[in-house]
Amino acid sequence: MEKKLIRRIKNKMNIEEIREILKDIKWSTWVVPFELIKPYIILLLCVLFVFPLIIGLRFSLLGYAMNYFWFDYMFFMWYKAKVVKQIEWERRQKRKEFRDD
Fold first, then answer.
1. What are the respective helix, strand and coil percentages of the chain, to the nearest 5?
2. Do the domain assignments include residue 84?
3. pLDDT by residue (tens digit) across 17-58?
4. Is residue 79 part of a domain?
5. For residue 48, what is the DSSP state?
6. What letter would DSSP give residue 23?
7. Residue 61 placed within a domain
8. What is the pLDDT at residue 75?
9. Number of domains in the chain
């Protein structure tokens, strides 16, 4: 579903329209893209285990759950921003190539 949305987005001209379409991608139904599984897992382990160990924190079960959801939401927001930047960069490249001809 996300790839279809991204293809539709590339045909749009305005950044506000891109953000409006990206609102269709909801956090509650979002799945980590295949190419980002490895960074997702590494960051998740760091957030849940390594960073708390370094600074001396110990989480309860509720603490782990809250940190997992916080991490997942932040990763989702990063992914949406990355998609917008990638689309904008591709548009600028197309405009640049068009001007060069």
1. 80, 0, 20
2. yes
3. 666 667 677 777 788 889 999 999 999 999 999 999 999 989
4. yes
5. I
6. T
7. yes
8. 93
9. 1
Domain ranges, residue 85:
35-101
Does residue 68 contact residue 44 with C-beta atoms inside 8 Å?
Answer: yes
| In the chain, beta strands by DSSP E | none
Distance between alpha carbon 96 and the CA centroid of its chain, in Å? 27
23, 5 contact by CB (below 8 A):
no
The rounded distance, in Å, linking the Cα atoms of 21 and 18 is 5
Question: Which two three-digit tokens encode residue 85?
Answer: 């930047």
Q: How far is the CA of 10 from the CAs of 6, 21, 63, 67, in angstroms?
A: 6, 11, 40, 34
Residue 19 lies in a domain: no
Q: According to the model, what pLDDT value does residue 86 have? A: 82
| 62-80 residue pLDDT tens | 999 999 999 999 999 998 8
